[in-house]
Amino acid sequence: MNEAIPLLPGMPSDDGTEPVFREPWEAHAFALAVSLHQRGLFTWPEWADALARQIGAARAAGDADLGDTYYRHWLAALESLVADKGASSAVELERYRQAWDRAADRTPHGHAIALQERDFG
């Protein structure tokens, strides 16, 4: 049986019970966090703390906190936990972010983005 993630304050939801996503990447980031939790990389309290830190930092930097940046904070919290737990490094995460940006730039709109070796150059 899968363990459900509780909705956290500020998490966009349909009726207060299920999360909603504006873009496919948001659903992927959500699923990745759930999967890494299920594999034991972090606990939900660790996750909630990491996410609260990211949201707090964003607010302090002027984020209006209208809900449209929620999953950006989610992704930043996930990246920080992955690096803090030693599952990857901040350098490696940045290398992959840049590779995905390059791949997205060369991919025509409407086509699937696929990483290639050249994207890491």
TrEMBL record:
<dbReference type="InterPro" id="IPR049054">
    <property type="entry name" value="CN_hydtase_beta-like_N"/>
</dbReference>
<feature type="domain" description="Nitrile hydratase beta subunit-like N-terminal">
    <location>
        <begin position="17"/>
        <end position="100"/>
    </location>
</feature>
<protein>
    <submittedName>
        <fullName>Nitrile hydratase accessory protein</fullName>
    </submittedName>
</protein>
<dbReference type="Pfam" id="PF21006">
    <property type="entry name" value="NHase_beta_N"/>
</dbReference>
<dbReference type="InterPro" id="IPR008990">
    <property type="entry name" value="Elect_transpt_acc-like_dom_sf"/>
</dbReference>
<dbReference type="InterPro" id="IPR042262">
    <property type="entry name" value="CN_hydtase_beta_C"/>
</dbReference>
<dbReference type="InterPro" id="IPR023808">
    <property type="entry name" value="Nitrile_Hydratase_acc_put"/>
</dbReference>
